[in-house]
Every structure is written in C-alpha cells, then in structure tokens.
Amino acid sequence: MFAIAISTAVFTANGHLGTPASVTSGFKPALAACAALALLATLTATAIPSRTHEPVPEPAVPELSIAD
Description:
By secondary structure, the chain is an all-alpha fold. It contains 2 helices and no strands. Helix 1 runs antiparallel to helix 2 (20-47). It is rod-shaped. The termini are far apart. The model has no long low-confidence stretch (mean pLDDT 89).
C-alpha cells in the first residue's frame, strides 16, 4: 500500500490523465519509483538473517522381539 501511495504521488507530481503525452511523462518517474522500492525491498529481505535450525533428533525405533 505504501508503494502504491508513493507511485501515485510521483505520477501526480509529474503528469496527469489529460493527454497521452502527460500520462507518459507521469508514468515513467512513477515506474522508476516502483523499481527503486522493489530494489529496497530486495535489499531489506536479504539483510534479514535466516533462522538457525537445530537438527531434529531421529525418533527412536522400538526393538521388536520375534518369538520363535
């Protein structure tokens, strides 16, 4: 939602829906803002440390006695 609000604000600051040329002049910076936010999200996601998984112990198998 944050990215949508930012890209809308960037579009509004650079263009409007009146003519195709003004849409393009607003769309290009808005798309660049979305790409920058996607890059920021990627860098943030890679900075999150992964969980360390402790090894799961193998379940004990009960020994069965075979009656002769």
